[in-house]
Amino acid sequence: MRAALACKQPPSAVPVWELEFQAWDNVSGRHLVLGREFAALSSAEKEKTMHANAEIIISVCRRLHFAALTMPGCYWETAPGVPAYYWLPDGDREKQIAILKRLCESEGILTVVNRSSLVQMPGSADNYEEFCYMLMDRPEEMDAHAGRLLESAIETAKRLADAGHEAVLTASDIADNRGLFFSPAQMDRWFFPHLEKWASALKKLGLFSILHTDGNISAIVEKLAASPLDAVQALDPVAGMDIAEVKQKTQGRLCLCGNIESGLLMTGVPAAIYEKTRATLAACKAGGGYVLGASNACYPATPPENYAALLAAWQEHGQY
Questions:
Q1: Cβ(88)–Cβ(96) under 8 Å?
Q2: Total domains, the chain
Q3: Which residue among 81, 144, 162, 228 has its CA within the 20 to 30 Å range from the CA of 266?
Q4: Residue 158 and residue 202: Cα distance in Å, rounded?
Q5: Is residue 320 part of a domain?
Q6: What secondary structure letter does DSSP report for 14?
Q7: Which of 74-104 are b and which e, b meaning 16 or more Cβ less than 10 Å from the residue's Cβ?
C-alpha cells in the first residue's frame, strides 16, 4: 500500500483497500455494533463491544486481503435525520481506533483516518440554498470557513502522526456526475490553495494524503497530479471517469484508488464484477500507483460472492 501511494510498483500485488467497507456483517456472519446502537450501550458493554468489533474487522481484513483499513468516522447524515453507517460517538471512536491501530500494526495493515479537511459541496443533509448564497454573496465567509477547515485539519494531522497513523483521507466532494460543482475561479480561491497547504503539511509529517470526491473530475486531474496530493479515490465510472485515460495523464504523479462501481458490487453478477476488475487491473496495474477497490463505499448489502469475484480477478490479474 505504501509503495502504491508513493506511485511506485508494490513488490507483490496491487493493494486492496476500501474507502469505507460496510459489509462486515455479510462477510463475517457476525454483527458489527456502530452508531446509535453502540451509543445506547453501558460503559462496560461498550468496552466489550469495541474488542468484539475489532476482532470482526481484522478477521474480515485478513480474509479479504486488505492492505489498509479506514477507521470509523464521526457522525454525519446521509439524509436529514438519517445517520451514516460507519460512525461512533466522540470519545468511544478514539478508543475503538486505538484498539484497531494496535491490531493493524501486527497484521501489517496501513491505517487510514477520515477527517474533513477541505471545502466541499453541500451534502444531502445540508442547506444547498444557503451554501450557494454564501458562495456568491458572502465570499469572505467562505474564506473564513475554508481557513478554519484547513487549520483544524493540520492540527488533527499532527495528532494522527503522533499516534502512528500513516494516511489521512479527506472526503471532500467537489463534483457530481455532470462535472465540478464549483467554478474555476471558486476552485482557485477555496480549493486548490488549501489542498496544496494540506497535502504539503501532511507530507512534512510523514503522512500520505488521500482525496475522495464523487463525480466527474476529468477537468482537474492534471492539477491534482501537479499538486502534493498523494492519491485520489473514487474515479466513478458512473460519473464518466475513464480510469485508463486518467492513468495515462497522471502516471507516476498521482495514485489512483477505486473505480469498481459500488452498485455493480452490490447488485451485479460475479462474472461482470470479475471482468470489470480484470479490465481495470489491465489498465492500471503497470508501474504501480493503483489501489483496487470500490468507487465509493462497499455497502452493507454487498453479497460475499460478489466481493469474492473481485478478489478472484485480483488474484489472477493483480499480481506483479
A1: yes
A2: 1
A3: 81
A4: 8
A5: no
A6: -
A7: eeeeeeeeeebbbbbbeebbeebbebbbebb
